[in-house]
Amino acid sequence: MSEKNTCRCPWLDTSKLDYVKYHDEEWGVPVYEDKKMFESLVLESAQAGLSWYTILKKREGYRKLFADFEVTKVAKFTDDDVERLMQDASIVRYRRKIEAAINNANRFIEIQNEFGSFTKFIWSYVNNETIVNNLDTIKDYVATSPISDALAKDLKKRGFKFLGPTTLYSHLQATGLINDHSNSCFRKNAFKLL
After folding, report:
1. Is 22 labeled as catalytic in the residue annotation?
2. Of the ranges 2-11, 48-57, 171-180, which one carries the lowest mean pLDDT score?
3. Among residues 39, 44, 123, 169, which one is catalytic?
4. Where, by residue number, does Zn(2+) bind (predicted)?
5. Is the pTM value of this prediction over 0.90?
6. Residue 39 forms part of a structural domain
7. Mean pLDDT throughout 112-118?
8. Is residue 169 annotated as a catalytic residue, yes or no?
9. Bind-site residues
């Protein structure tokens, strides 16, 4: 869908066709696979302090350099891998974020071992059902919620890094645990049958 009269979320820069494609096909779609969940966590963590569009443009670089987000491979990255990643401009070259991604891979695996899957763990925060928010204008959007606050506290206690309430709220939106498409957006009701 690329017609000019198609209603989309008010935050979306519709002049960026790759951003529109991301919004129309990925953002807010419920994720039930751990690999996709891990990818989103790494990318959202990398985005902290930057625009999502910056990370979207670098996503292929992340996929290539982070072993296509195979969590067990990322968990084994060494200091040499960190140095290698720091030299590649196809990702955000911020050492603490790179180190956090490796650390978080190990913590992610711990949650998988405890709960059977990370997806099972995180969906329990929304009682296994997407929360649908009522959003009419850009002013209705929030940066955090009690759920993202509680999740951030839990993950911090478990040793995760660079995943605060705002970053996790974005993750919950992106992976469909929270449906924050605006009420007028054509994607708002796309997932009711899932």
Report:
1. yes
2. 2-11
3. 44
4. 9, 23, 181, 185
5. yes
6. yes
7. 98
8. no
9. 9, 23, 181, 185
> Which of 3, 19, 26, 52 is an active site residue?
52
Whether 43 and 59 have beta carbons less than 8 Å apart is answered as yes
Q: Write the burial class of residue 47 (CB in 10 Å: 0-12 exposed, 13-18 middle, 19+ buried).
A: buried
Which residues touch 13 (CB under 8 Å, ≥6 apart)? 19, 53
Q: Backbone phi, then psi, for 179, in 5-degree steps?
A: -95, 100
CATH number at residue 80: 1.10.340.30
Domain range spanning residue 79?
17-179
Give the residue ranges of the annotated binding site for Zn(2+): 9, 23, 181, 185
Residues 158, 152: Cα–Cα separation, whole Å: 10
Number of domains in the chain: 1
Percent of the chain with pLDDT over 70: 95
Instruction: Decide if 99 is catalytic.
Output: no
- Residue 2 has what pLDDT? 44
